[in-house]
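testing teh design pipeline on a random one, pls ignore if ur not involved
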């Protein structure tokens, strides 16, 4: 059976306001990265009301699109589409780098990877995490990579995946208290554990390709909502390089992880961030679709996507035009 590694992504975010707002300024991190492990073959971004986004690379080399909408509006819809080819370059270790050698390299690693070893707002280095560090060392084989992989499993087994148990601004402390959370929380906990042990680690946002999305015998299309948007961790192993860890799924499969942005924690890579002028409250809906961009014979699939919220009603469109 051929493994699909070319995917079409559709990501739709829609804000609805209970009153008119204006002067909306927004920043997006939705374009998949183009690097040694994947190629972003195409990307398209549209907004309603229409705008002219400007793009640049941020400090961590993530694509950022900025746009503003000055007239009054009651809805804001952001649609991004991309085609990504995944071609993982799995690093092969020269040898097993031991934890004892890691301890001797702390100063050099801090000089080179300060951003990836320091505590952050979302990833404080708490004494309460010491037990997780100890357990990960016990389960590992004495190597730096063995510790990192054990730590990912420890987090996976110690916390319950429960949407709604935390919120977007929750910290490691919040998740430790509830013993439940989502992929963002598990990634923050793992980052803290790895950094406490002296391993540089970074937060990754992107998409997880599920088994249903890979099933080319079905409808070739699978709307999986927020489950497709995902977060995981990359850890730096001396003499090996950066490797992926997924504490939510329990194992990391590079061909199923599409990378969009990376940073010190979630605060560096939110997919959508913005402000607006007005006293209206807002509601948010997000839909994500991931499906193969080619079939098993290698032919490109050109069907239109369907992972979009319902179109605006006529009266809403008229209000926006006014």
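output:
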């Amino acid at each position: 059976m051929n493994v699909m590694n070319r995917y079409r992504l559709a990501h739709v975010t829609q804000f609805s306001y209970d009153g008119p707002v204006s002067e909306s300024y927004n920043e997006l991190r939705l374009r998949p990265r183009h690097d040694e492990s994947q190629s972003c073959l195409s990307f398209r971004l549209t907004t309603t009301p229409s705008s002219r986004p400007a793009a640049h690379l941020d400090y961590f080399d993530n694509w950022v699109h900025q746009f503003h909408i000055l007239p009054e509006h009651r809805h804001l819809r952001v649609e991004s589409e991309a085609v990504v080819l995944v071609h993982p370059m799995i690093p092969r270790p020269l040898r097993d780098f031991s934890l004892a050698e890691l301890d001797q390299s702390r100063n050099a690693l801090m000089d080179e990877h300060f951003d990836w070893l320091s505590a952050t707002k979302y990833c404080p280095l708490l004494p309460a995490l010491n037990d997780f560090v100890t357990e990960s060392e016990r389960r590992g084989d004495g190597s730096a990579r063995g510790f990192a992989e054990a730590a990912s499993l420890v987090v996976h087994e110690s916390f319950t995946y429960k949407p709604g148990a935390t919120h977007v601004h929750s910290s490691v402390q919040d998740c430790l208290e509830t013993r439940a959370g989502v992929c963002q929380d598990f990634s923050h906990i793992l980052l803290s554990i790895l950094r406490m042990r002296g391993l540089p680690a970074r937060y990754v946002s992107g998409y997880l390709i599920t088994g249903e999305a890979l099933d080319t015998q079905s409808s070739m299309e699978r709307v999986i909502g927020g489950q497709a948007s995902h977060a995981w961790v990359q850890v730096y192993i001396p003499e090996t390089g950066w490797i992926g860890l997924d504490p939510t799924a329990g194992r990391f499969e590079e061909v199923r992880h599409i990378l969009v942005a990376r940073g010190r924690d979630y605060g560096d890579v939110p997919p959508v961030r913005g402000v607006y002028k007005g006293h209206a409250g807002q509601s948010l809906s997000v839909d994500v679709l991931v499906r193969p961009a080619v079939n098993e014979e290698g032919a490109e699939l050109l069907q239109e996507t369907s992972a979009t919220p319902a179109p605006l009603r006529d009266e809403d469109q008229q209000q926006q035009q006014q």
